[in-house]
Amino acid sequence: MNGPSSVTGVTYGAxxxxxxVKSFLGDRAWMYVLSNPPVGAAMVTVTFASAFAGSAGAGxxxxxxxxxxxxxxxxxxxxxxxxxxxxxxxxxxxxxxLLRAGSNAAPLSAGAGQTLRWQEPTVGxxxxxxxxxxxxxxxxxxxxxxYGGSWDVLCIGLLPVTVTxxxxxxxxxxxxxxxxxxxxVGVLLPWLTILxxxxxxxxxxWKKREN
Length: 211
Description:
Layout: E1 7-12, E2 15-16, E3 18-22, E4 29-35, E5 44-48, E6 54-64, E7 66-78, E8 81-87, E9 94-101, E10 108-110, E11 115-120, E12 124-130, E13 135-142, E14 150-160, E15 162-164, E16 169-171, E17 176-180, E18 185-187, E19 197-206
Parallel strand pairs: 4-19, 5-18, 6-19
Antiparallel strand pairs: 1-2, 1-5, 3-4, 6-17, 7-14, 8-13, 9-12, 9-14, 10-13, 11-12, 15-16
């Protein structure tokens, strides 16, 4: 194939994740989400529709104090500055983004206020940022040799848990996150050996913090 194969599913152990957003041009980047996963460690497995002459970068991040996904959208372009803007402004919420670019885009750096969660040399990377009003913009500088290739930036917004009394509804604790090591991400056989082209997959696993 000239490009990467479609992702047909992502699982966390025996639990299936839901696809929330993928790149405009199709089979280049995806973000999957799982609500309230089972307690404990599990392998994140990505299944492709077919073998392809490409490579895949992936990562997993967990978030707590999340009530739901507020907004999500993809952007794409070319050049040394990649960005995406989503509507937000939810207090205590965050925006999570995924960058997909070519291997010659590195070194790369996340924009102001963004926390880098993981980075793969293929190149894929993921960050998050506390929301701002009325929108939140995520940016990446792609510094590799005056990079002029294509990129994709996917974003989703995570809404904080709300606390309701008889008189008012207020925002709960801020959304927080922690990185799951990249080696917990697997590619389901027989498509384990994939070389050449570039794609990136972000897996976001979110849950409410246990008391």
